[in-house]
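Incident log, structure service

09:12 report received: a user says their structure output differs between two submissions of the same chain.
09:20 pulled the input from the user's history:
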Amino acid sequence: MGGFPLGVHQAFGNRLGAAPAADYRSAVIPTGQEGAAPVDENRVDTPQAGNPAEAAPATAAEQSRRPSASDLDVLSRQLGRPVRDVVEIPARCVCGNPLVAATSPRLSNGTPFPTTFYLTHPVITSAVSRLEAAGLMNEMNDRLGADAALAAGYRAAHEAYLQSRAEIGARSGIGSVPEIDGVSAGGMPTRVKCLHVLVGHSLAAGPGVNPLGDEAIAGISQWWTRERCYCDGAWDTGGEAPSQDLSRHGPQGLPDIVGRPAPVRKARAETPAGEDAATGAGAGQ
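09:34 re-ran on a clean worker, output below:
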């Protein structure tokens, strides 16, 4: 999977205790759809009413998609490093904090970047890592080979991912990125390689788009559910936001496209053997 060094695996105490099972999809609203989370009127990116120079005020969905300075600060704290090239916030917590970040399909340094939707919320990334460690990706891959309807739905999710990336590229002024035409993320359209990517896609696109992302979200309901806020204590809110990369997972990409191998970071000395396999890399830029 390409991207953010997520895979944050920390103890959350009672906040990760079992929660009542619920349908996540009716409350976590992708910010590009009607009913998107309300935007704080004090956000720096929200147009102010009464400005005669503003010809067409942004819709609530457009306002909610735009990353504010506060959003970028939160993302940096969630990821443990300075965030870069985030162009939209496609899904938010019920409290308004980002759950998923959308990255430009071409980074500011010119690198093509196929992995558009990234989970950033540590509680969700940790919960999804538990599913990966339990072998769910192998089970899903077996089912893709045996279930034609599931395989067709997964291929359709791949096409929807490409379409969403093109739309984000157009909205952000980046335009098309021919180097990654036909390349989505997470193993789509034929394999499952990263559940974090699939969950990020499902949260951003809404229910019924990525069947395996939807399944994974249902599978973490004992640790995270859509109707509750799990932000309290999930990341460090004290002091300045990170000014250097403090995460353990380096950016991944497509070496054949980018022209160089992905950097590999050594595990911290205090990291128990095997922990990286259990936590997984969520998303990274």
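09:41 both user submissions now match this output. Likely a transient worker issue. Closing.
09:42 reviewer note: The mean pLDDT is 76. Residues 148-171 form the longest helix (24 residues).
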